[in-house]
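To: structure subgroup
Subject: Chain for Friday's discussion

All,

I'm putting the inputs and outputs inline so they're searchable in the archive.
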Amino acid sequence: MPKTYILPEKNRLRMQKVWGKAFFGSESEIKEKYQKLLDGKKYKTVITVGDYCSHHLQSDIKIFDKKVQRRAFDQRHECSLKVENPAGTIQEESWNAVRQAIKDSANLCVDGEEDLLVIPAVILAKAKTLVVYGFPNKGICLLEANLKNRTMMRLALKKFFLIEKPKTIDAKPIV
């Protein structure tokens, strides 16, 4: 899957929906529901995508861009890994960075925008992993990394333009 994907402007609204299970309500209600879920399920790993979730919710891996709703946010978590990922894209390098963050159980700081990195997080995560992301002004959404959700994320990638880097050919000059 490590290729660059660009989400066309016309498909952006379609991507702004609830994927998985949603917890909406006040901050305290959401935190309470979230904690009950963690206590009841035996997830080996929890990945939060987005600054608000990464700052306020318990997780093993945090993917954030130091912004909440496009405004600067003082994220106090350490950045172990960094990647550039412009808005509306999933860069090839981002796939590799998410893979490395999962492998090392490390936080990933994104220069650009992290919203769409939910997709590689779900696709690349091991079984028994929960991926959590924020739903602006409403709450959070939770996706378990399982076959059903991986398939759903792969289908979502079909709404993107795919950019493949050209393969280089080792050629010798003709003399």
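Points worth raising on Friday:
The first helix runs from residue 12 to 15.
The chain has one domain: 4-163.

D.
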